[in-house]
Structures are given as C-alpha cells and as structure tokens.
Amino acid sequence: MKKEILVATHNQHKKEEIQQILGANFIVTSLTDYNIHDEIVEDGLTFHENARIKAEYCFKTTGKASLGDDSGLVIEALDGRPGIFSARYAGKHDFAKNMAKVLGEMEHEENRKAYFVTVMCLMDEKGVNYFEGRIYGQIRRELSGSKGFGYDPIFQPDNYDITFAEMSAEEKNSISHRRKALDQFLEFMAK
C-alpha cells in the first residue's frame, strides 16, 4: 500500500523532485493539493526550527503525515550566508536577484567553498523525526546551465565539472542534499 506524505510546500519543482526520489511506494502531496494557500511563516533561527514549523503546521491542519523541509545554501566566505534566508536573500523568492547578490558578494573571494543543506522534519501521529543531507561544492563565478531551480546555476558539486543546473534531474537527484535527507527518511520508514 502506498504511503501518503504531505510535503509542506507550494513549490511544484520541490514536490516533483521529492516524488522522483521517493519513488512509487509514496504519494507525495503538497499544500496546493489540499487547497491550502497560506504562507507558513518561517521565523525559526535554524534549518531544523523552520522544517519543524512547516511540518507542524501541515500536520495540525490536515492530520496527515507531514514532511517539513528547509533547505539553503551555506557559503564559507560569507560566514554561512545566505543560509536560512536563501529563498529571500535579495528579495522574496527572486532567485535571479538572489544569485546576483551572491555573485556580487563573492566577486573578489578566492574561497568559493559552499554546501547545500536540507533538513527535513517528519511529523505524524508517532512523533517528530529529523533527517539532514548536505552536498559540498563551490560557487561558480557566473551562471551556467538552465535546468533545476534556485541557486543551481552557480553551484558546482565537488568532484563534478558542471553545475546542478547543467545536470539532468536524475543525475542531480542521485547526489543532492535533498536526496541524502530523503535516503535517511526512507531508511527510517523501512523500520
């Protein structure tokens, strides 16, 4: 029997990415599927807090097993910025401006080290569990690629010579931070 997981997002790209990673044993739904259009206020100070806020809102609103996800780009030379503010670093959900701001701040930086992190919080009738994934890489000096979303055109994973935005969805999803967190989730669900 397929297990439904409500993902605390309105982002269709994120929903599709999670469905692709979880596979046929899960039915991934989103807030939009439940006709919930409220913006969840992410006022936590950490990725863990924001993931829990989202999961708790969805679980309390629908009673369905809910997966809150908070992801971001952490750049060493910028003291961890944009971090929890990744989606609204230069403007609310304007990744063109967000990337331009990052590239501007990184213009004279030699240290290009960065990582993407995803923290997921599962809340259901059994309680609360967290799953975390990271992928390390570098910030490119210019945009490269047109696939993916968010900061994908400026992030080049370690041991690759292309950005996330140059990878197929399958290739990106096989190594991504979200994949690593969801692998932990799948392992937990198999118990």
UniProtKB/TrEMBL annotation:
Its EC number is 3.6.1.66. Mg(2+) binds at D70. SUPFAM superfamilies: ITPase-like. The active site is at D70. GO terms for molecular function: dITP diphosphatase activity; ITP diphosphatase activity; metal ion binding; nucleotide binding; ribonucleoside triphosphate phosphatase activity; XTP diphosphatase activity. It comes from the Bacteria. Its cofactor is Mg(2+). Substrate binds at T9, H10, N11, Q12, H13, K14, S71, F149, G150, Y151, D152, K172, H177, R178. Pyrophosphatase that catalyzes the hydrolysis of nucleoside triphosphates to their monophosphate derivatives, with a high preference for the non-canonical purine nucleotides XTP (xanthosine triphosphate), dITP (deoxyinosine triphosphate) and ITP. Seems to function as a house-cleaning enzyme that removes non-canonical purine nucleotides from the nucleotide pool, thus preventing their incorporation into DNA/RNA and avoiding chromosomal lesions. Belongs to the HAM1 NTPase family. This is dITP/XTP pyrophosphatase. It comes from Kaistella daneshvariae. The gene is rdgB.
